[in-house]
Batch of 2 targets.
Target 1
Amino acid sequence: MNEISFAVLGTGGIGRRTLEVSQYRDGLIPVAVCDRGGIAVDHDGLDVGELLDATEGNVASGPDEVDDDQDTVTDGGVSTDAGGVKQTGEGAGVVASEQGRPTETPIDDIIAKSDRIDAVLIALPNLEHDFIPRVADRFAEAGYEGVLIDVLKRSRVIGLLDERAETLEDAGITFVCGAGATPGFLTGAAALAAQSFVEVDEVEIWWGVGLRSGYEDNRGTVREDIAHLDGYDIETARALSDEEIEAIVAEHGGVIEFNDMEHADDVLLERAGVCDVEDVTVGGVLDVRTDEKPTTTTVSVTGTTFDGERGTNTFRLDDDTSMAANVNGPALGYLKTGVRRNRAGEYGVFGPAELMPRF
Ligand SMILES: NC(=O)c1ccc[n+]([C@@H]2O[C@H](COP(=O)([O-])OP(=O)(O)OC[C@H]3O[C@@H](n4cnc5c(N)ncnc54)[C@H](O)[C@@H]3O)[C@@H](O)[C@H]2O)c1
């Protein structure tokens, strides 16, 4: 396969690791990145090492300058004080890199350069359900013809993307949705595990994530997970200040269990014909005190074979593989598959249970 130039929208906990993992994959050239305050573009390939060093512990999760008395709502939720973000350089995020420059229109600036970009990985927070679908609209309106891929989690967003399938198809865009770990890797594993059966009764996904770097370095992920707790939803989670999130994490002793999560594995498995939405359950445990997983990540698919046997096929991740590895390895694998499909003229919306990620 020829080289693939790609961009990353959002260089937080996930986006930074996407760039890092891409260094270990053949043929992937990171040419553009942005966060909420800056952009860096080099069509010959960005210096990822420099970019990662400059943004280490220095993610632009909130606006650059915030009046201490005034909460500012952003796509990543409410940030009360830019001082809450660890900073190691001049400015937070991409602008701290010598390759970066400040901008107030980061996504539009990437779109303006997108005719030379094969694939765009969207690692933005999705606290407004239509945020990522609206980003897709902007690429389509600008005449982008390439791959868009996201690692979003919520079931209802897939419907919003499906509504746009025709527009994306007409534009020549191949959109791979929900292509992180769960949904993503584990959804794909469930689709494979289901192949033994003629009837699938149940798919159970149970994840364990240990993130010693905690909320500070994984703001979108932790905030969006909190929206699944009793008493919270996406709107209330979006309105929480950083301090309130830290307090919720502390109330749980740093270990939070989630049950019956609205994870798009369900709709993605249904649209791939594996089972019905209601047959899928997703839950897990997040531990922000340690990098060790609090529980083993498993996907169990229970069904009946053609010859009448009932059984459960189980796919298990090693406890030593991190969330960063299990989100970004598959996301880049699905990105490569997306580019292959795009170059073959297949456009529209695809899920991880319909594709096999490539190396
Ligand atoms: N599918 C999976 O398995 C999986 C796993 C983990 C995280 N995720 C998802 O990945 C996403 C990112 O999570 P994270 O922890 O990296 O978040 P984060 O808060 O650490 O980073 C978000 C990044 O997006 C940037 N950003 C926010 N709004 C922007 C805007 N309007 N324009 C440009 N840039 C903007 C921020 O500056 C930051 O760089 C979340 O939606 C999370 O749910 C998915």
Note: The pocket of nicotinamide-adenine-dinucleotide is lined by residues 10-15, 34-36, 59-61, 75-76, 93, 106-107, 123-126, 151-153, 180-184, 218-221, 224, 327 (CB under 6 Å).
Target 2
Amino acid sequence: MSETLPDLLLIGCGKMGGAMLSGWLERGLSRAVVVEPYPASAAAFAGRASIVPDAASIPADFRPAAVILAIKPQEAPASLPAFARFAPGGALFVSIMAGRSVASMRAALGERAAVVRAMPNTPAAVRQGFTAAYAAPGVTDAQKALADALLQAVGEVAWVAEEDQINPVTAVSGGGPAYVFLLAEVLEKAAIEQGLPADLARRMARATVAGSGALLAASPQDAADLRKAVTSPKGTTERALNVLMEPDAWPALMSKAIAAATDRARELAG
Ligand SMILES: NC(=O)C1=CN([C@@H]2O[C@H](COP(=O)(O)OP(=O)(O)OC[C@H]3O[C@@H](n4cnc5c(N)ncnc54)[C@H](OP(=O)(O)O)[C@@H]3O)[C@@H](O)[C@H]2O)C=CC1
Ligand SMILES: O=C(O)[C@@H]1CCC=N1
């Protein structure tokens, strides 16, 4: 890829920050400085990014175009003030923290800080992420375009018009991969319960989830149509779906789960 992204400062190189950084490095970064107190997390990026343990160790001449906030939301009040010095220079802050509101970030970074709230997901690690983002008032078109380029480097991007919409996004696509992986786990367990060998059960569950995802990605059909294509009238799948789609079963449970996660995102606003 010939594109080059501008200088970035990544705060927190854990599971999600690391997944995004790998995509940005692949796309070509002028310079990346990573603040990560736990050296093992960032070790994979040694030689490709400058890894420092804290804000005080950021090179004095470094002027990032964007500062990516990828620490836990609960750590924001203590950690963010150390990065407020980048706001007056026009750096864009892109937060991927669940729940943390623009108002709470500006309380720590300065009221004029340019902030984008983004919610990616871990398939970003294989450039198949989905991110929804919200640009707070004051973010310029050029800053929004920069955020869009950063997020597009690791997958698909959608912009929302209202900040609160990021909270259900967090519940659905931010956490969504966990629900899909849980599906693989429970399919594997159910296969073993029906007498299949453990290694076959594992292979089947993984291949079925991955293959179905690939088919969904490649097909113009709705998920419901793809489901119906598997479900022969009076056949075996219909029996299983009758159980899964009972009034209190899957659809109702998923609605309850997404509501619980959305509520939790709102609790983390700060
Ligand atoms: N995991 C996911 O699927 C997604 C996560 N997110 C959001 O991304 C953020 C990070 O989540 P995730 O990657 O899972 O968490 P991780 O715990 O894996 O990553 C956070 C990293 O930040 C480090 N850290 C802690 N304090 C500081 C600091 N002051 N300066 C720099 N680094 C620091 C942590 O180090 P140490 O371990 O030593 O504390 C850790 O390595 C969260 O806000 C989460 O809501 C968003 C979308 C999806
Ligand atoms: O569970 C969390 O809080 C984060 C946000 C979305 C995915 N992981």
Note: The CA atoms of residues 131 and 157 lie 5 Å apart.
